[in-house]
Amino acid sequence: MRLRLIVASALLICGNAGISAINPASSDRSSDKLKGVPLRDVAAPLREVWLRFHEENLCLGVDSIFVFHARGIEIWCRIKDERNYQQLAALVEPLRKSYRIELYATHADREKKASSILDEDPPPSFWTNAELRSYLRDPFFIRFGSRGDRAQDVYDDSEADPELKRRLKLYGDQILEWLNKMVQLAIDLPSLAGAAYGDDIIPDIRNRARAVCSDHSREVGKCAVRLAESLSHALPRGTVNTPSAQPSKESRPASASPHEGALLVSQQAQDLERRILLFLYPQAHTVTLDDLREPSLIDSLKTLQQTVSDFESSARKDR
What we know:
The chain has helices at residues 2-12, 17-22, 44-55, 82-92, 115-118, 124-127, 130-135, 162-197, 203-231, 258-280, 289-293, 297-317, and strands at residues 34-36, 62-69, 72-79, 100-107, 142-147, 150-154. By secondary structure, it is α/β, with parallel strands linked by helices. Mean pLDDT is 77; it is low at 5-28, 114-118, 142-155 and 239-251.
């Protein structure tokens, strides 16, 4: 049992959003959400649990890895929403008499987090963000003095309007909520696409898996649009108003299979998670300008939108 708990910790740390916010370098999550025997060799009732887990969007509240056996299943869970976890437990409970069912869980809200995440302060990068304060109409923002052609921004956070602080916090929370939803759905997309469009399609779940793929990819695209619109108010001037770089045809396969397209969506979403978290919680309270400009976060979010569109087009052609 002790060994299994150690393995559980190792598996679930890759989906640890709380730790990612503190240490963005560790934000990569596993795209391999299915392990064990091939899905075609899994008993139908066990496949049903996995499909319903995604159909009912329980995956948004429970970050899980499914390990299938021919006559059983292990589910390693990191719980963000207790209600979703209870729904998952209810799905597997009727199968316990016929199959070996094992649930291993840890709770996101019990993990150790830095004080900056626990308190009511907005992300540190927002305190000195002139563009964002201007957008939120900060009455205490003063621009004066100059060094060459660059103005010096001065902001005394001890005099910050409590209402402004609340708005900044809500703004950051909204970005994190959209980001988490976008990445959680994106990392599950490759395994779903494998069941829906892979080489060994299972007829009895194919159409349902394709429907879930469509729902997940559509929501990933919506989150990318919302993030681009919201982040445009916080990025330094000169990184947003320039013409957006259009992804070249050479940058993505023109005839990628749906499964390859799903992998690309997953990889781009995870890279954006790392970069956006670094923007919200910069290391040493600095922002890497290269990450903002080459290409900008907005351009990268638009590239993700295009990749989602390419995946959906490829999926339609494969039907």
